[in-house]
Amino acid sequence: MCAESQYSPLYHLACSVPSFWKGHRKLMGIYTGYFDESGDEEQPDFVMGGIVLDAENAADFDRDWRNAIKELPVLNGQPFLHTADFVSGNRQYDPDWKGRYDDKLMILSSAARVINRHSVQVITSALDMEDYREFDARWKLSEAVGHPYAVAAQIAFEHMTLWAKRNSVLTPIKMVLEDRDGIGDVIEMFKIMGHPLPSAESKGLPQLQAADYVAWMRLKRYHPSSPYELVKASWNEINKWLYIDQPYGLSELIRVVLRLSDQHPDISFPQRDDDRTVITYNNNRKRPRRPFKRKSGRK
After folding, report:
1. Average of pLDDT values for 192-210?
2. With contact defined as beta carbons under 8 Å apart, do 119 and 242 qualify?
3. Please, which of 65, 167, 180, 295 could form a disulfide with 206 given CB 3.0 to 4.6 Å?
4. Which domains are present in the chain?
């Protein structure tokens, strides 16, 4: 029997179960969903993008991904794809590549082919930040359900779970996120919701680099920039039947609140002007949760 533990490809591989194939996609097995965000809370959408992989193919994905991005012009260290910086020519990438969009398109297309080859599903979801702020201004959404990153992670988890149900995947799907600011809020919220807790891994994990590409492409498709227009053709390498996308606005947030209120009576959604009701951390009832605030200097 497999014991619950910190995520690792070896753990999932050891837990693999017999499976069968339809075409070249497995319908049963042990799966892992890798998700990353693109943009931030100050942009119109907070986007989560991810890929669902069969655990048995973890080593193959790792090998193929590293081979696909081996020509990345990093200034120091091993090739590493952070799509926004690579396309813009910022930070760790050779500034001589700033205008070489044909070369960038070629590398991104190679990366997309790896995603297409190994993923059983590609998922994106976008939290409408204007709707989030509107809801949070009236009710204590950010304290009860979480700040935008935690809400976006829950949305992605729900979409991944829905995909699993539709495809009769019976084994729980492990979710892997980047170990970044706000991951503690995600874990706290997943505990409250009763979801399996996600693992936090380095952004350098090849699967999270792939998730970053998926999230950035979704963000820019709705909010395009000139550099995006020059590399967007790389997305054509991903089969449209592999891809699902779900915008998440005010009506969806209201449905979440109604469902949570019904399923979790201990979770309250007091109005913002209710000073008597204080929402605290689950593991520290004396510590109040703070509302989401925009960064200073932003309007």
Report:
1. 92
2. yes
3. 65
4. 31-128+147-249 (3.30.420.10)
